[in-house]
Amino acid sequence: MASFSYASALAALGLVASLSTAQAATAPQDVQAGTYQIETTHTQVLFSLLHLGFTDYSGLFSDASGTLTYDPAHPAAAKLSVSIQVASVQTTSAKLTDELHGADWFDTAHYPTATFVSTKVVPTGAGTADVTGNFTLHGITKPLTLHVHYVGAGVNPMDKAYTVGFQATGTLKRSAFGVKTYVPMVGDDVTLSIAGAFEKRA
Fold first, then answer.
1. Would 127 disulfide with which of 63, 141, 150, 196, CB 3.0-4.6 Å?
2. pLDDT tens-digit profile of 61-85?
3. Residue span of the signal peptide, if any (predicted)?
4. Domains of the chain by residue range
5. What is the dihedral of CA 18, 64, 119, 109, to 10 degrees?
């Protein structure tokens, strides 16, 4: 039987308290203004599209970097720049994941990076905004609008960094970016769902 440690119990309770505090979302207007850097480990870009008319099939990119400049008093002035290493793509099929790297799909050897650079931010409510920018994929740049909502902010109890999180959704046609394999059997319309974590740097 494991021995009971009073000190360990207190430490665990302290961690739980810290986690509870972190999970209590700061009001959108109280988020700290400043320059933020993407926290790569907990930022994900999910994509889904219709597969043969049967299912919505999903995958994700996980290797994102970039910056956010944000002031809750002036949300329309926010600036976002994101870079994704396309080779980070993952699906539930190892064979498909490997195929997606190839020339018929993302062609990661020639187009290793996807980017999004905001050009306009339109607040749509308390903690929500439409963020339009230039999205580059497969060597082609097109406008893309992301519908963004604020999730929460506070000090991360694990690394002690002040962190703010957002969720965003958007849609695009993959054929517009030159990724046309199996259209229309495999859907052209791609839905993006993005979980973005940002740590304050200045």
1. 150
2. 999 999 999 999 999 999 999 999 9
3. 1-24
4. 6-200
5. 180
